Protein: NADH-flavin reductase
Organism: Bifidobacterium choerinum
Amino acid sequence: MAQKIAVIAANGREGRLIVEEAVNRGLDVTAIVRGENKTVAPHAIIKDAFDLTKDDPKGFDVVVNAFGTWTPETFDELPREVAHVADLLAGTDTRFIVVGGAGSLLVESDGKKIALEDTPDFPDAFKGVSAAHGKALADLRTRDDVEWTYVSPAANFVADGPRTGEYQLAGDDLTLNSNGESEISYADYAIGIVDEIVTDHPHIRERISLVSK
């Protein structure tokens, strides 16, 4: 029987690609969206993420959270939304896979490891959203009642990049590809998310990261 998965914020650019990848691999996919379902998912729950109740995720094997915020006025919504969904899944066997950020990945600096977002060259324009993602991860790491996996993209997350079908799986450290770059396309990241859904060895209560080869 195909795994049943739900994708929150499925109408977003990454959400749609995750839905498409999952459907193409034969998973039973439900899009959770605020308005019209614009994905290829055959089922939809039309609801704001903050209005979801404990009944909504019942019956799903995996809930993927592709929720994002991009303005200073809404940055705080991201960790609150992740915490809200985690509360709904607490004490269940439903896995919670979170589309995360790269700013909290670790890099070497003066002989110690610091977050990428704390390095001098980290762009000011991304500090707010990076901090929001970092808070969401920090909150998840306090929880042992949720089967969560936090998935960071590479530092350069390329919306229109090609689907190569290949990527590297890494952990908390910023990892570089064969060109010495930290980069991955949205399409290859979606492959990594669905690989994590279907793997026999899931990364429960871990942060993983994905980078191109």
